[in-house]
């Protein structure tokens, strides 16, 4: 396992605990209301309705709708390794997929994975064709500003990778070089706001084309999150090197419609339970092992 990646995972899980503890009414209480066995009908909202039946009609129907449909439809871009991507057999897999599947298992519902192009995710969510966006969504991204967000469940650095035989060894060596980045990604936003941006040429690509272009020699480096960098190197065996300096940090969250508080909070209940009983750490280790 790559120690640098695992440290970012542990930092992310610690952030989940700290943020949950500091958040007020809009968040769930992980130590009291969420356990490993949290499944219907024991949810935050069924408990509230039992205690205060007169207020149950004031709760939004997003969680009830998911239970009635017996499924959670997540919108995702399938070109984001290792968070959500299509394997050689055509199956959608990834770190985010495993987390979402565990949440659905605990809620006793089916997980439906709905591929959506990145620029259509908000449109599909607002049209009601998906229940949430679960797609390596950065808490500080432009897209997140229009959403009702879960607490961060994962935190990692934004890194620059180069071929191992490259003469680029430090951030200073990037001056005058071409850096590829995935269109619409958190890495693109952070790269464009970084100190190095004015000294480089940015090339924006769809999906994983940035990696392919660097391998073909069309660009000199790629900007991406550290989780993805380590996945390419330690699971796919790519001959890349990670520059020592990070250009930023991102926190990943799940995005819901602004009015869908009950669904957001129940998913958060389950994420809190997974953090508490060690399941998040287990899944993180699975996707970071080499």
From TrEMBL:
Protein name, as recorded: Polar amino acid transport system substrate-binding protein
Signal peptide feature range: 1-23
Family matches, as Pfam families: SBP_bac_3
Protein's cellular compartments: Cell envelope
Similarity-based family: Belongs to the bacterial solute-binding protein 3 family.
Domain Solute-binding protein family 3/N-terminal: 71-290
Region listing for Disordered, in residue ranges: 26-58
Top-level taxon of origin: Bacteria
GO CC field: cell envelope
Key words, A-Z: Signal
SMART domains according to UniProt: PBPb (SM00062)
């Amino acid at each position: 396992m790559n120690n640098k990646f695992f440290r970012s995972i542990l930092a992310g899980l610690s952030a989940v605990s700290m943020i949950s503890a500091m958040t007020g009414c809009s968040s769930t209480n992980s130590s009291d209301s969420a356990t490993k066995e949290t499944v219907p009908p024991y949810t935050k909202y069924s408990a509230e309705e039992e205690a205060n039946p007169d207020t149950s009609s004031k709760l939004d129907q997003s969680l009830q709708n998911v239970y009635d449909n017996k499924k959670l439809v997540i919108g995702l871009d399938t070109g984001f390794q290792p968070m959500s991507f299509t394997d050689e057999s055509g199956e959608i897999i990834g770190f985010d997929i495993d987390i979402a599947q565990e949440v659905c298992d605990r809620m006793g519902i089916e997980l439906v994975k709905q591929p959506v192009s990145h620029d259509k995710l908000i449109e599909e969510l607002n049209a009601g064709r998906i229940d949430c966006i679960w797609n390596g969504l950065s808490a500080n991204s432009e897209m997140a500003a229009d959403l009702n967000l879960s607490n961060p469940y994962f935190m990692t650095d934004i890194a620059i990778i180069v071929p191992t035989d490259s003469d680029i060894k430090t951030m200073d060596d990037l001056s005058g070089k071409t850096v590829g980045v995935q269109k619409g990604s958190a890495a693109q936003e952070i790269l464009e706001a970084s100190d190095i941006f004015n000294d480089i040429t940015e090339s924006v690509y769809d999906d994983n084309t940035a990696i392919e272009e660097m391998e073909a020699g069309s660009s000199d480096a790629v900007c991406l999150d550290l989780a993805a960098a380590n996945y390419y190197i330690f699971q796919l065996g790519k001959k890349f090197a990670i520059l020592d300096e990070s250009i930023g940090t991102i926190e990943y969250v799940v995005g819901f419609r602004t009015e869908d508080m009950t669904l957001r909070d129940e998913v958060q209940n389950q994420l809190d339970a997974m953090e508490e009983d060690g399941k998040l750490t287990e899944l993180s280790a699975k996707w970071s092992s080499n």
